[in-house]
Amino acid sequence: MAYHDDLLQQAMELAHKNPASPTQADLRRSVSAAYYALFHLLVSETIAHWSPASSRDALGRMFEHSVMKRVSGRISDSRFFPFTGEDPKVVRNLKTVAQAFAQLQDKRHIADYDNTTFWTATEALREVTTAAKAFSIWQEIRDEKIAQDYLVSLLIKPRD
Amino acid sequence: MPYIPTGFINQAELANAVDQAVLKLKLGTEVVRVRYSIGVDTSGEPSIFFRVVLSEAASREATLADVTGNIAAVLFDEIRPYENWGLLPYFSFRSASEQAMRSEPEWA
Q1: Within an 8 Å CB–CB cutoff, is residue A102 touching chain B?
Q2: In this complex, is the C-beta atom of A77 within 8 Å of any C-beta atom belonging to chain B?
Q3: C-alpha A101: how far from chain center
């Protein structure tokens, strides 16, 4: 399995570990793994288009989490991305993936660093299932032009 | 709690917009209640944080992604947090039984 698939499976397993009494460590690590699963999926999808296979991993190191989050947030702002003339279903699906990424990154940060936030099983499972849904939606739209444009934009710092 | 200068946002108008949006949700069957706060996210961006308490039926794993996705979509489409308020939306979901055990006031 690809690394991002392994991460998603790990996230799912952690979220389901000890269902009667889940530990905060398991729930928080499940959220973190879910974010990194989607992060690595999008990175792998982007670099797959880079012709020389030998330099794909180096290109993959160019992604910045903060830039990816800002871009993903702006996808849903019709002032920046009106998507005029595009298939509404594809647009909706792309926004779902982008929103999932932005949300998961913020949740990942809280899960990894904020000891004051208590996670319930439903909260953690929601993030993991959101990542899983983003995976399946991505398979539907990955060949669409606006999805490919989104991947490229993840490497470009937005101008204010 | 992060601090956002309230002068940037008309709190009463935002509250009204949220109230109107919540009416579009399946209150009772899926959604027990919705609470929200404004603040900054982990990147320092002005944000609105929704906390949604779900019914037990709506909290089932098999449908959790779809149910929560639909709730988020309704709130997103009705409130238009980016365009109308300059806020990034975030959504958290708990089941009613989980909230009953925790009793955290920001979810009550």
Answers
A1: yes
A2: yes
A3: 3
Q: What is the pLDDT of residue A160?
A: 64
pLDDT tens, residue by residue, A9-29: 999 999 999 988 999 999 999
| pLDDT value at residue B1 | 45
CATH number at residue B74: 3.30.300.30
Distances (CA, A) of A41 to A7, A103, A146: 10, 16, 17
**Is A97 an 8 Å CB contact of chain B?**
no
Which of the four pLDDT bands, split at 50, 70 and 90, describes residue B93? very high
Question: Shortest CB distance from B92 goes to which of A69, A121, A123?
Answer: A123
State which residue of chain B sits closest to A125, comparing Cα positions.
B61
Domain total in chain A: 1
Would residue A158 count as lying in a domain?
no
Domain that holds residue B81: 6-94
**Inside any domain, residue B103:** no
Q: What is the DSSP string of B23-51?
A: TTS-BTTTEEEEEEEEEE-TTS-EEEEEE
| List of residues 6+ apart from A83 with CB closer than 8 A | A91, A146
